[in-house]
């Protein structure tokens, strides 16, 4: 138990300094730049606010769960009641304990982490509120709150929303919006007095989800301006919010959005909020770098090389024909594919998207000998075999729905409005859960399935359990996590991709169980440039499904050069979604060259630090991956629009070691389709410069047209001479 009123947690260049007293929840005094221990004790008086004649108006201290009982007049951090009473929580005693991961009391904590565990008791309401603030070696902070009912009668939690304060100087907000096939569109605005809340009520984060909520100094960019941000690690209904008050508090917050009676606690039961994951940095690259380091430190983070994938969806859609698919597999293996994934259309009655979901049996009309002939040939070619499922969904036109209509989520009016001609299977029903787990597990074992593409193609609307029709979104989310966990426990080598009509469920809750996300159902490289750039604020490249599609994109109709499509897809977990049986040999040769390059660069792309240059010309984007030791880097210059300026002047290569010299050259095959007159003088023989010069002065930019790119490799050669 702490005896000092100030606790200093320090990891990864980050200090988290907290005020801890015996009758209040912890208050964050500082979160960000590392502070010397010598200064910590003086911070309490140095940062003490004047109170005047009212603590309500002054609000000198706001806990990590802002409480109405303390005079907080913003959105309450805890909402709930016991049949209309006990609605205001006010601690009579708070115990604070600092714990190191691995110590008694936190034996299974994340390696290298430290936390402040605070337990607050309110004797009047018979409630106990616990807050956890973890600081990880990456510098990432995780915050969670839990409420336990100590009284004899039930207590309903209607909201539990912890948060972290940020400086008033962080007055500009960044988050994202989007829609199906156009996810991860950034939006920025000034944070004014009041509450900016991004809510998700569809049982998943959604295609329009904020993804991250970042507050920063006005004009912040990838490499400049202090920023602080949060992400809600939850796959159901949830909210991320920024709140600014007139008494100089500014908070970033997040929690689950609860429907009526989804969290009713009997005596001794607890409810925990989802983890709020927080990062900060000087510029967005530093913010994202901490999150990437945090994810890569997880024990379940993919440790093996990410196999090159071919997914059959845009190659064949529902037209499953064994000879054609065998030819596709042969072509895939010949260009270097390492994992072949059979998408939607293989199961009973699934000739279109209006039937069959839930009937997880191989359709004998399409596959009279089962999937064995395809799966066996794929394995014989040296590739892994993957299969598509949508375990959380059901078609009303299915044997499952006809046999068990009570397994479909709905209300007294019925199963609710259809979306993509399907409904939601109640995984909170133990029998439905057991059925899906058994069917999936049996198929994985029978066909030696290495990989599952796990889809989720509609939001939850009117999602109630039968026969009571009580809200079931929270139970569905938790059941999905359990299903993923049990399937992986039964098949430890199985890998799973989280797809949600593309990028509709991109969160760190689902990523506890999945090995990657499908960024979007839109594979158009013009759109993917933006999506992949902004999703990198949360996820590193190895967790991003990035595929090469056909010449003419199936979502937008846009036609793009193969080098642009492949050069965009190379920046992630590379794959193909294209009918290679009708692809010209010249394109297959080009694709083979890009696959060979990706295989060569996998250790760098999937283990390095992601960096971006702040755009000088809006149409020209430069991003890179720098190896952790600074010895190697790959940069991509992409022209994402028809630029007003031409030539483009210079580009900067950020993130290199300023004290080393680098040999810089264009990385083939990216320059093959570029007219030689568009390339600056340094390209022919390369150039050798220091990281300092490359990051601050830069290089003359190649002159490219819209939707063209070039890759630039920077390899360290030696330390620079010291100036005399």
TrEMBL record:
Q: Which reaction is recorded as catalysed by this protein?
A: Hydrolysis of terminal, non-reducing alpha-D-galactose residues in alpha-D-galactosides, including galactose oligosaccharides, galactomannans and galactolipids
SUPFAM superfamilies (UniProt xref): (Trans)glycosidases (SSF51445)
Could you tell me which residue ranges the Glycosyl hydrolase family 36 C-terminal domain spans? 625-703
Q: Name one GO biological process term.
A: carbohydrate catabolic process
Domain of life from the UniProt record: Bacteria
What UniProt keywords apply to this chain's record, in alphabetical order?
Glycosidase, Hydrolase
Which GO molecular function annotations are given, in alphabetical order? alpha-galactosidase activity
Where does the Glycosyl hydrolase family 36 N-terminal domain lie?
A: 25-263
EC number in record: 3.2.1.22
Residues the record marks as active site: 455 (nucleophile), 521 (proton donor)
Question: What family, per the record?
Answer: Belongs to the glycosyl hydrolase.
Name used for this protein in its record: Alpha-galactosidase
Organism from which the protein derives:
Arenivirga flava
């Amino acid at each position: 138990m702490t005896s000092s009123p100030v606790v200093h947690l320090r990891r990864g260049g980050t200090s988290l300094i907290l005020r801890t007293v015996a009758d209040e929840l912890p208050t964050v005094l500082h979160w960000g730049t590392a502070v010397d221990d010598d200064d910590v004790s003086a911070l309490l008086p140095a940062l003490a606010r004047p109170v005047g004649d009212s603590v309500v108006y002054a609000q000198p201290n706001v806990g990590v769960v802002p409480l109405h009982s303390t005079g907080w007049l913003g959105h309450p951090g805890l909402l709930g009641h016991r049949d209309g009473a006990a609605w205001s929580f006010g601690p009579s005693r708070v115990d604070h304990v600092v714990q190191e991961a691995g110590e008694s009391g936190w034996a299974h904590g994340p390696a290298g982490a430290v936390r402040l565990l605070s337990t607050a008791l309110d004797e009047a309401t018979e409630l106990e509120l616990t807050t956890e603030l973890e600081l990880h070696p990456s510098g990432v902070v995780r915050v969670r709150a839990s409420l336990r009912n100590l009284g004899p009668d039930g207590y309903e939690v209607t909201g539990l929303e912890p948060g972290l304060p940020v400086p008033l100087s962080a007055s500009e907000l960044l988050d994202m919006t989007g829609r199906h096939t156009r996810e991860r569109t950034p939006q920025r605005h000034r944070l004014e007095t009041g509450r900016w809340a991004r809510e998700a009520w569809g049982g998943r984060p959604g295609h329009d989800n904020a993804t991250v909520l970042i507050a920063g100094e006005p004009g912040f960019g990838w490499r400049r301006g202090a920023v602080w941000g949060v992400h809600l690690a939850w796959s159901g209904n949830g909210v991320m919010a920024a709140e600014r008050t007139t008494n100089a508090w500014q908070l970033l917050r997040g929690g689950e959005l609860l429907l009526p009676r989804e969290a009713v606690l009997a005596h001794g039961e607890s409810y925990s909020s989802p983890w709020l994951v927080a990062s900060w940095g000087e510029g967005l690259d530093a913010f994202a770098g901490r999150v990437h380091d945090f994810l890569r430190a997880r024990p379940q983070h993919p440790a093996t090389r990410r196999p090159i994938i071919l997914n059959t969806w845009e190659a064949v859609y529902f037209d499953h024909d064994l000879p054609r698919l065998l030819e596709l597999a042969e072509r895939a293996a010949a260009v270097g594919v390492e994992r072949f994934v059979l998408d939607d259309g293989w199961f009973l009655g699934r000739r279109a998207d209006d039937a069959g979901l839930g009937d997880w049996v191989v359709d004998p009309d399409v596959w009279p000998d089962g999937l064995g002939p395809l799966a066996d040939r794929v394995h014989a070619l040296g590739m892994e075999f993957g299969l598509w499922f949508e375990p959380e969904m059901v078609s009303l036109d299915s044997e499952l729905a006809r046999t068990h209509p009570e397994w479909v989520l709905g209300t007294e009016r019925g199963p609710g409005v259809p979306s993509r001609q399907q409904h939601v299977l109640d995984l909170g029903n133990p029998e439905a859960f057991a059925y899906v787990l058994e069917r999936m597990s049996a198929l994985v074992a029978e066909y030696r399935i290495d990989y599952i593409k796990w889809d989720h193609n509609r939001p939850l609307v009117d999602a109630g359990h039968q026969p009571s029709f009580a809200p079931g979104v929270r139970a569905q989310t938790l059941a999905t996590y359990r299903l993923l966990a049990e399937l992986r426990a039964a098949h430890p080598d199985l890998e799973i991709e989280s797809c949600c009509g593309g990028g509709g469920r991109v969160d760190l809750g689902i990523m506890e169980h999945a090995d990657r996300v499908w960024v979007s159902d839109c594979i158009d490289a013009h759109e993917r440039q933006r999506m992949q750039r902004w999703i990198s604020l949360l996820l590193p490249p190895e967790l991003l499904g990035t595929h090469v599609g056909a010449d003419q994109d199936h979502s937008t109709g846009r036609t793009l050069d193969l080098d642009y499509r492949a050069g965009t897809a190379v920046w992630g977990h590379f794959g193909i979604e294209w009918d290679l049986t009708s692809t010209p040999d010249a394109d297959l040769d080009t694709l083979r060259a890009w696959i060979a390059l990706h295989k060569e660069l996998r250790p760098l792309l999937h283990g390095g630090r992601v960096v971006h240059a702040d755009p000088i010309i809006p149409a020209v984007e430069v991003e890179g991956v720098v190896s952790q030791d600074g010895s190697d880097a790959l940069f991509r210059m992409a022209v994402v629009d028809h630029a007003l300026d031409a030539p483009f002047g210079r580009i900067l290569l950020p993130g290199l070691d300023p004290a080393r010299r680098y040999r810089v050259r264009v990385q083939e095959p990216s320059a093959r389709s570029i007219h030689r007159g568009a390339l600056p003088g340094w390209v022919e023989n390369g150039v050798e410069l220091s990281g300092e010069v490359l990051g601050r002065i830069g290089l003359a930019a190649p002159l490219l047209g819209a939707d063209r790119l070039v890759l630039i490799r920077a390899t360290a050669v030696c330390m620079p001479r010291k100036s005399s």
